[in-house]
Write a structure and sequence with these properties.
single chain, 3 domains, 20 helices, 55% helix
């Protein structure tokens, strides 16, 4: 097992997710469509990619990432390009009356080896803004496939970011409603039931994005699946096993100290701490001490050096919220940014302009892994995030 930082991991490097993988396949085998709910950096994309890497028998799995997309055409182009990587689906394209531009792009599949990302961009360009008819035709061809006992799983990563970006564009609300209505039709159509399945997720909550847009009803037929941080026990085992595998063995007191400093054992943060500590010790376990662990946490993780790894917690707020909500989210986090947390009573002034906005923002900050709420008390889930936020985002 390798301690890989900042990238999705699969196979032997995906640690502690055996139950989650089994549960996902169980839901899919029962015909469910899944909305993955997960705070940041807990391994959502890794789990999605593992489903693609090691599918169950009689399953085809597509994975598409639409984070950089601007509209529905990006979504349709991504599905078409991913389907083109599976020979059994390529014949679908020959029967679809695409436009001349799209047909020219597809014709290249037969003559040259095409990079999937380049192919996707070319398809998007050929589609332009006319995505509805190609989507209709693709649906019809999938529905007409002979039942060969093979199910198709389409995994869509970062759909909430695409939806959020679309909602900010002119006419975006109507486009989002149309796209999500068509995806709902795919999920509910008898012709595709039990044959084409979807799993969607992202680094901001789709539920929150759609709730604020008044479109929550378009996903109320999807089964929620909660993916959380590691348990303390799993994090302890990871640090022990990863240390052994890299000849950097940690004693139990050091492991306990690391996890107490982190607070919430977010897999990425645990991996980051192990890597930073190993570098601080020059790979020599004998150099480990409580002071060095503390110094590593304060300077390498929560200090300026940690910004490259943690700044996404700040930038993602801008993607998830409009300007008013963004300002409110930062105010809530800044006031909660001390070891004692903050009571809701101390946030009362933030509710006066708009109580509904305050409650919506607070709900999303909890769902996305920033805050825990106990009764009327709020505190950061992650002590690392609290320390870093306090140093870099509190005046």
């Amino acid at each position: 097992m390798r301690n890989i930082i900042g990238q999705a991991v699969v196979g032997d490097d995906l640690y502690g997710r055996t139950y989650e993988l089994g549960r996902l396949w169980e839901l899919l085998d029962h015909g469910q469509h899944i909305l993955m709910l997960a705070p940041r950096r807990v391994g959502k994309t890794s789990l999605m990619l593992e489903l693609r890497r090691a599918p169950r028998d009689n399953w085809d799995v597509l994975y598409i990432d639409v984070e950089g997309g601007e509209g529905p055409a990006d979504f349709v182009a991504a599905i078409l390009a991913a389907l083109a990587t599976i020979p059994r689906y390529r014949t679908l394209f020959e029967a679809i009356p695409f436009s001349t531009g799209v047909k020219k792009v597809l014709a290249r599949l037969k003559s040259v080896a095409v990079d999937i990302d380049v192919f996707r961009v070319e398809l998007k360009g050929a589609l332009g803004r006319e995505w509805v008819h190609p989507e209709d035709q693709l649906y019809a061809r999938l529905a007409s496939l002979p039942d060969a006992g093979v199910d198709l799983l389409i995994i869509v990563d970062e759909l909430p970011l695409l939806i959020s970006r679309m909602l900010r564009s002119d006419g975006g609300h109507r486009e989002v409603e149309l796209l999500l209505s068509r995806l709902r039709h795919w999920r509910q159509a008898p012709e595709l039931r039990g044959r084409v399945h979807t799993l969607v997720g992202g680094s901001i909550g789709l539920e929150g994005v759609l709730r604020r847009a008044g479109l929550s009803g378009l996903i109320n037929d999807i089964t929620p699946f909660r993916l959380d941080a590691w348990s303390r026990t799993t994090a302890t085992k990871f640090l022990d096993e990863a240390g052994r595998d890299s000849n950097f063995l940690l004693d139990q007191d050091s492991i306990t100290h690391i996890l107490e400093l982190l607070g919430d054992p977010v897999p990425y943060h645990v991996q980051l701490f192990l890597s930073a500590l190993r570098d601080a010790c020059k790979g020599e376990p004998a150099r480990i001490s409580p002071n060095l662990i503390e110094q590593c946490f304060v300077e390498r993780l929560a200090g300026a050096a940690g910004t490259a790894h943690l700044d996404h917690y700040a930038t993602r707020l801008e993607s998830a919220f409009d300007p008013e909500e963004y300002a409110m989210a930062r105010s809530i986090l800044s006031r909660a940014c001390n070891r004692a947390g903050v009571s809701l009573a101390r946030l009362k002034d933030l509710t006066k302009p708009n109580e509904a906005t305050f409650q919506s923002v607070l709900r999303d900050l909890q769902a996305d892994g920033y805050l825990n709420r106990q009764g009327d008390h709020l505190e950061f889930r992650s002590n690392l995030l609290r320390e870093w936020w306090g140093k870099h985002h509190v005046s």
